[in-house]
Amino acid sequence: MSYIYESYDVAVVGAGHAGCEAALACARLGFNTIMFTVAMDSVALMACNPNIGGGSKGHLVREIDALGGEMGKNIDKTFIQSKMLNKSKGPAVHSLRAQADKEDYTREMRKVIENTDNLTLKQAEVTKILVEDGKVTGVETFSGAIYPCKAVVLCTGVFLNARCIYGDVVNYTGPNGLQAANHLTDSLKELGIEMFRFKTGTPARIDKRSIDFSKMEEQFGDDKIVPFSFTTDSKLVQKEQVSCWLTYTNEKTHE
After folding, report:
1. Which pTM was predicted?
2. I need a surface site. Which of 28, 40, 63, 134 has the fewest CB within 10 A?
């Protein structure tokens, strides 16, 4: 049996980087918006590399910021190291990258989301996109709850029928051991949407106390930190930073 809940203008499926920006943009434009996540712990989760920006991506973050997005502001509040890459080359390829405190990043983004008018954050797995006469009418969750809406924004990332692979092991789970979304894919296929698998690579998490730093090269942040957001006061981001460390694999690893 299905139950019909309150209606919304927009439903955003997924609460990663893209979902947060989509939901905030819609809500700030005055649309009554609901954002669904399979777990509250996954809101703005940095499941892969815990950084913002870098080659090519740094420019994208600036563009999001220019359009009123939150990512640049959030990393300015939560970074632990900031560095302008490619400074030995021309300014066209300079690219800002900031390493983040993962927990701070998601916590600060949730604060913004939960205090934004017209925006509701809901923990539930969306399993169906409801369509009538070629138009979206709502979404249905695993529990059978129906949320009528006028538009759906899909920001599912790597959660659809997710698999995590390490070595020769394949585990059917979402990133960081979070629940995968195993039902929405079938609904999208029924609507004629062609599906492709999206892959991402995740670095190992290792105990700092287990590392021999003497075998590595220390990588410092910039002396003068450049903020990501145009709205951030550059004086407020100058702070003590954490070093990164560079190491190399070998031919055996490549083999």
Report:
1. 0.91
2. 134
